[in-house]
Amino acid sequence: MAFLDIKNLEKVFGQNRVVKDFNLAIEKGEFISLLGPSGCGKTTVLRMVAGFETSSSGAILIDGKDVVSKRPNQRNIGMVFQAYALFPNLTVAQNVGFGLKVKGIAGSEADNRVAEMLKLIGLPDLGNRYPFQLSGGQQQRVALARALAPKPQVLLLDEPLSALDAKIRVSLREEIRMIQQQLGITTVFVTHDQEEALSISDRIVVMNGGRADQIGTPFDIYNRPSTRFVASFVGTLNLIEAKVIDPAANRISIGDQAITLKEPLGAAKVGDTISLALRPEAGSIVEGANGDTALVGQVMTSNFLGSVIRTRMKVGTAVISFDMFNSPGLTPPSVGETVTLRFTASDLLIIRE
Ligand code: ATP
């Protein structure tokens, strides 16, 4: 049975249904990210799990018990917010010990637990400092220690990294993942940053307009997006219009070039327009190759991005971006040049929804 089980959860603000029939079963020790654009309802789901927001309908079970009617402090949940939200007038140690005090844990048991938490977050010597004497990254680690100190059953993280600069964000997310795995704590993490979600999660829930569009491992979400929305929200993607020329043989055309798809075309008929997805990193430029899994086009732009050179080419009316991995010996294609982009047939995904 799932450890955190969210069933048919709904939230209505006035006339606005912002969370719709949301279902999610999370195993004990799993790290789940809620990923989606601003306003898709991810924070609202998290706040309903925490008890800061009431649900309009549905159930939230933690270890088999419905917590919907319980107040936040009765739910045994730890939460970290985007803004560090530390108590400015308390020291680091007092901040970390705050939840213990609330629970009536004091004396050496509390002191030991605070010391253990400060060690866990890599700040064993900063217990006597005040929040204003810490960097943003350190403050967020203290917020994490404070959330974890009372040994919650579930950890909720609401965009905890978004106020930090890029380098700290990457190192802290790795640290959060290590700590989460070390403690084996069931965790729900809210983010609008797809790279963050892909790098840190066991599974990702991609949310769109209050619903879960797709739930899957980072690998599945990236490689097998089930909807147009997921395909375009996660990663950079070419969405290419193609015409069906022979459904039985999976033959389609892009511009005037025919290609055989790996995936069956299903009920499509001759002349139908379908949408195909192709990641920029899937293709490579080859000299003069031709065949079923190649497209010939004219280079429109070529941008040096450091590790890759992203090039856009025109194939009929379609514009396709592809990446060439940088190396000192590489000569990037020039604008106007005719190039052949080669890929495997299975890299072209049919987007059906
Ligand atoms: P963000 O990343 O911007 O925080 P989000 O995906 O977390 O976005 P929510 O904060 O959950 O989105 O908001 C979902 C929708 O609910 C939005 O349209 C928002 O305006 C609305 N909403 C949130 N809280 C309230 C409220 N207290 N009263 C009315 N509407 C609200």
Describe this structure in words.
The chain is an alpha+beta fold. Helices cover 24% and strands 35% of the residues. It has helices at residues 42-50, 92-102, 107-120, 136-148, 166-183, 194-200, 218-223, 228-233, and strands spanning 4-13, 16-26, 31-35, 57-62, 65-66, 77-80, 154-158, 186-191, 203-208, 211-216, 238-246, 251-254, 257-260, 273-278, 284-286, 294-304, 308-315, 318-325, 338-342, 349-351. Helix 5 (166-183) links the parallel strand 7 and strand 8. It is elongated, with a radius of gyration of 25 Å. The model has no long low-confidence stretch (mean pLDDT 92).
Question: How are the SSEs ordered, and which strands pair?
Answer:
Blueprint: E1 4-13, E2 16-26, E3 31-35, H1 42-50, E4 57-62, E5 65-66, E6 77-80, H2 92-102, H3 107-120, H4 136-148, E7 154-158, H5 166-183, E8 186-191, H6 194-200, E9 203-208, E10 211-216, H7 218-223, H8 228-233, E11 238-246, E12 251-254, E13 257-260, E14 273-278, E15 284-286, E16 294-304, E17 308-315, E18 318-325, E19 338-342, E20 349-351
Parallel strand pairs: 3-8, 3-9, 6-7, 7-8
Antiparallel strand pairs: 1-2, 1-4, 4-5, 9-10, 11-12, 11-14, 12-13, 14-20, 15-19, 16-17, 16-19, 17-18
Adenosine-5'-triphosphate is lined by residues 13, 18, 36, 38-44, 192.
